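This week, look over our next protein:
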Amino acid sequence: MNTPFPPFASIIIDFDSTIVQVESLEDLAAIALAGCDDREERVGAITDLTNQAMAGTLRFDEALSRRVPLLGAKKEHIVELVRVLDEKITPSLKQHSGFIRANAERIYVVSGGFKEFICPVVEKLGFKRENVYANEFICNEQGEIIAADATNFLSQENGKTKLLRHLQLPRPRVIIGDGFSDYQLKASGEAEVFYALTENIFRDTVAARADRILASFEDLPEIV
């Protein structure tokens, strides 16, 4: 349905399967586990956990805590992941980089992914680093990724909602994303409108709750 809100004071955009076409942790695992006998099994397990969390059938914090140990990743693998993600930007978003740059002050990236790879990718598109909110890795002395920082709101269940309550961004707010955690911002009252982007993946349980389904970012300048 159409909304009476535009222009929105705050435009909040998810990262995985929204700004990029993929779920980044799956690609990170594929890179880190290259040559491992159980690579397919572990990547498959990460995919399954991601899908459950995005559909709202598994708590996000549980899914995250179970996925990170499966990665087998080190800091050095993040460099390669950024190169991969640079090639997997959602096509319709690339076509609107001018809009992103012109409206960068009111656009925020809020993701359950990780700053270490999100910032290098989105900055090239015109997003402001200081407007990126995401998880952060914890590494051991050997540079191995062992956990997510549990003090970060975004590592927790309903993390996006907790973060938005803390930030107090200007209203009205719109959230654009593909997952249940994006819808939760609307359900909690922390966003006035939820647009479900389906260009990369269509999740029935998410689309059914959206104010509008976006087949692409083509209409972005008009609807925000």
Q: What stands out?
A: The first helix runs from residue 24 to 32.
